[in-house]
Amino acid sequence: MVHCTRTLAAGARCLQIQQLLRWGSAHLYRSGIESSWSEACWLWEAAGGGPAWRMDRRGVPPTHITIRFRRLVDARCRRVPLAYLTRRVGFMDLELAVRPGVFVPRPETEELAEMALTLLSTLPKTPRILDLGTGSGAIACAVANTRRDARVLAVDAAPRALACARTNVRRLGLSAQIEVRRSDWFSEVDGRFNLITANPPYISTNELSTLEPEVRQYEPRSALAAGEDGLAEFRRILAGLPFHLVHGGHALLEIGHMQARGALALANGMPGLVESKVHNDIGGRARILAIRWM
Known about the structure:
Layout: H1 17-30, H2 36-49, H3 63-77, H4 82-86, E1 88-91, E2 94-97, H5 107-120, E3 128-132, H6 138-146, E4 151-156, H7 159-171, E5 178-182, E6 193-198, H8 213-218, H9 232-240, E7 245-254, H10 260-268, E8 273-280, E9 286-293
Parallel strand pairs: 3-4, 3-6, 4-5, 6-7
Antiparallel strand pairs: 1-2, 7-9, 8-9
């Protein structure tokens, strides 16, 4: 048994791993983080301590790992997003790199990616897909990883997002399928596509102050805010769809759960539209607008 003469808060460095994890979990819980134990374990691994479930928690870690772990816990207590601290996030069956300044993909967007794959299963070989506002490249990578004959153009206007997307494409071995390009929506896009996907900003100006601290304080405002009604960027995307979808092509656009009526009204005013429908997410909230183009 190792005896420490000072508490962790006072700077002790010789606590056992189990004690450090308990301290981290309690610290996180007091800061309002409900999944405090699992997050403490993830932060421990991010600090270089290895997977917490595979180690002897009675051991005493090196000082530099203890210091790094404490700093990560303190940052998480300030509500820095967990993904920014671990530099990774799970999306479908992939592990993606993320970094500060890049929008963190959400579970709701996984449902959009799954719907895209269902649509692609009905399309001929070598479909062309355009992923607008790709961010970390989550949708593009998930689609290309499953549909290996797909050719994907992933675009974003933010340099940090593009760098992150390129990292994920390279790490996942998808460079032959996915091109990452800088473009403000359709500004640098040519040609037509079988499927267009997008998770655009859809938070209204009034809603920004109600977001969780992780989102409001740390995630890029350009990936969140979209004018007074939250549909400003949605309108820009709709305006470009007629020029970039093939006949019979599809578009899947993520929307806010209160935007179904407004999004449908805008979509139904488009010339050449065959069908538009809002699909609910697993929680029963409006989440995806599906469009089919004539």
